[in-house]
From TrEMBL:
It holds the Pfam family MarR. It comes from the Bacteria. The keyword Transcription applies. Keywords: DNA-binding, Transcription, Transcription regulation. Residues 12-150 form the HTH marR-type domain. Residues 156-178 are annotated as: Disordered. This is MarR family transcriptional regulator.
């Protein structure tokens, strides 16, 4: 019986080969479409922007450092990714009420509307792609994909020190109302 990933049976090796290939194809197709939804041009959104807006929507206003920590990414990455969201009016940057030197980020009304539009489009896309699936198949796929994402997060957290909050709270699970 195999005791490590390197000691798999021929059958397991073939299955893992198929899995890694399927994940690679999925990642490419998801990136190509950016899961933009049914009305792609109108409802497409960059992955980083979508995840940042979701975080601000679910947790409310927060500083750059808190946002970075909660997502398990570097503060400079958040700063770079938030800049176009501020420029386009999706995110508001304000001073912290108690420490005027600190910056607080929050969704603007425009950001809330845009996020709702993209979520609706993505839900429509998911419905379209799984139209011939049973409810049980959708639930099983959602469960397994969530487990897979959790395993990736735990692996990343193990390589980079403390686990980001999303590894503990399933951040990238479906947002409320989705």
């Amino acid at each position: 019986m195999p005791t490590s990933p390197d000691m798999t049976t021929a059958s397991e090796s073939g299955l893992l080969e198929t899995l890694q290939h399927s994940v690679a194809v999925f990642a490419r197709r998801a990136e190509q479409t950016r899961l933009g939804g049914v009305g792609q041009v109108r409802n497409s959104m960059d992955r980083a922007a979508y995840l940042l807006l979701n975080r601000l929507d679910s947790e409310g206003p927060m500083g750059v450092k808190a946002l970075a920590a909660s997502m398990g990414i570097d503060s400079s990455t958040v700063t770079r990714q938030v800049a176009p969201l501020v420029d386009t009016g999706l995110v508001k940057r304000t001073s912290h009420p108690e420490d005027g030197r600190a910056v607080v980020l929050r969704l603007s009304p425009r950001g809330e509307a845009r996020l709702a539009e993209v979520r609706a489009s993505r839900r429509a896309l998911m419905a379209e792609l799984t139209a011939d699936w049973t409810a049980e198949d959708r639930e099983a796929f959602t469960e397994l994909l969530g487990r897979f994402n959790g395993a990736l997060l735990r692996r990343q957290a193990g390589q980079h020190g403390a686990a980001p909050r999303e590894a503990r709270t399933a951040d990238e699970a479906a947002p409320e109302g989705a």
